[in-house]
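Entry 14. Ran structure prediction on the chain below.
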Amino acid sequence: MKIESRRKAFTALLVVTLAVSCAPAVEQRDTSNPLYVDPATRDFSRNPELLEKLVQNPHRYFRFINIPFSQEICQRFDDMIEGTPLFNLHGDAHIEQYAITDLGRGLTDFDDSSSGPAIIDLLRFGASLRLACRGQDCGDLDAVFGEVLRGYRAALEDPTTEAPAPAVAQRLRAEFKFDRGAYLEWVGSVMEPMPEAEKEALAQAMIPYTVSMLEQDAGLGDRFYEMVETGYLGLGVGSALDQKYLVRVRGATDDPLDDAVLEVKEVRELAEIDCVRVSSGSDPFRVLLGQTRIAYEPFGHLGYIRFQDKSFWIHAWVENYEEVEIGDSLTSHDELAEVAYDVGVQLGRGHVNQIGAPLDAQLRAEQMRILDRDQEQLGQAVDDLTRLTLEAWELFRAEVAGSRSAP
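Output, structure tokens:
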């Protein structure tokens, strides 16, 4: 919730907005960078604050361009990927996806999960470390990325491997507050108004989901999923322009304090990433499978609906949710290394979980051979992809500045 930090962040965004709007226009730019996204091709009028976030910080831009970033990996490593098996993919592994919650810890947010080459998750997380540490004293980042690979190997060798809880996870969990009233008040504050007709249509679309959930757990009670309050949701970076709803439902009793909060998120198309396997159209099951196979502790009330000719996946929010932040919650190289190892273990366990059953052992062995073959190239690839991202971000900033200074 961090209300004061949100105020500070908003002030910083205003400063960046003024600085960028006063920058001189650049008339000719080389936009051949495959990671460059022309801001004119996105409708930021729906979420103008997002544009300021992207201009301000290269890691936020990196979060926004996950699909072209993953496609660049597909193209760069086409020969290496050819003939390799499919693995469960998180699809958007980066340092700010590592969260500590009421349920546990680990990578969250499985919007881009699919099946494909494991190198996508490893390289994306490696580039994230370098971009998030830009301007910070994170120590030897090659050694930190080495911790990711060490944890990954440990989990491939023994899928029961458990990483020690990082110090940052223990510290943040000790700071959790359990004030249901304050939490639900905050939930209401981030709900954006929506038309009554759309609320009613959404309620109708959720009926099959409700029936399915009650079949799985009849103990919830027939009225558990009755809508109390509904609104649009605009939070996020990579998903900020996706269609999202926040739905508060009755819960087990009429007591407002036991209401549950559900996020209903549009399923994103991944067809532009040609080395991952997804069903044609927007398949919600790839997200649900990624959540259940890779997350240490999946969120509750997982399901899906069809609404307005689109697919949406659903999961429950938790009262406490804190993403790690380099330079804020992560205060040392050692703490960053602990998180990196934990992420490596999570991916090593999750990449092979159930996807090759009953041949999981053979799949783990094959991935170890692939890692032995390709490990030397991973570090260089992380450097190259980081450089490309920074150059694309500079182009993006210049284009935004030019459009604002134009008469």
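Residues 178-322 form one domain. Will compare against last week's run tomorrow.
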